[in-house]
What we know:
alpha+beta, tt1808, chain A, 6-stranded mixed sheet, 8 strands
Amino acid sequence: MSKKIETLVDFVTGRTIVNVGAEENRQQVEQYLVKRKGYSKDEILVDDPISFTVEGEAYRSCVDLVVTVAGRRLMAIKCAAGSLGSREREIIAAARLVDTTPLPLAVVSDGRQATVLETVSGRKLGQRMEDIPSRREAVQIVEKGKWPQALTSAQLRRERLIFRSYDSMNVNVARRIRPGS
């Protein structure tokens, strides 16, 4: 007997998606960003592709959410169903790799709580949903123009290994579900 795969409509994209893992948590985060923090839906990238080569092998995945303001990628967000602390290093690595230079902020959230991290140092800036910068605060960050420097090749290699290690353990995600499975 096969189990019926549940779906839902993504708040930001309007696409029908598989409801597995932390998907309901992601929907809460998306709604919070739009309704409480003032971002528009078109400033939120859902399942933003990330790809690189590590140890001679191509690796492709996605970052749950990437928030953009004024055409700049500002914040990478990992939506988790379990412990936020266990996902901090993964989202920091993603925020360091998803663009040509690291994004300023990395966030891990379960839709009710959030940990906001400064990407370069990994320092915690806040531990509540309210600590996620509002759109107005994000514009100020972009206007200051202090963006992290590009990583060295050794740093890139290390971050790629870290991200791949954590990300490959994410088995209960839609991109790993095959139709008919």
